[in-house]
Prior knowledge:
single chain; mainly alpha; 1 helix; transmembrane
Amino acid sequence: MTTRGLIGDKWSLRILWACAIGTGISIYMVAQERDMQNRARAMAAEAAARGNPGGD
Length: 56
């Protein structure tokens, strides 16, 4: 007789998919945050090039 462990195959697959989806969402959120930071940095550099170091 074989034992399947504490978590059955169906639930382990669901947990795997939940982790994969969560990882995808996390990567997307990090990419969005970096994009916002890059845009802010580019806008600050552009403002500094115009002679306005305050960024306004």
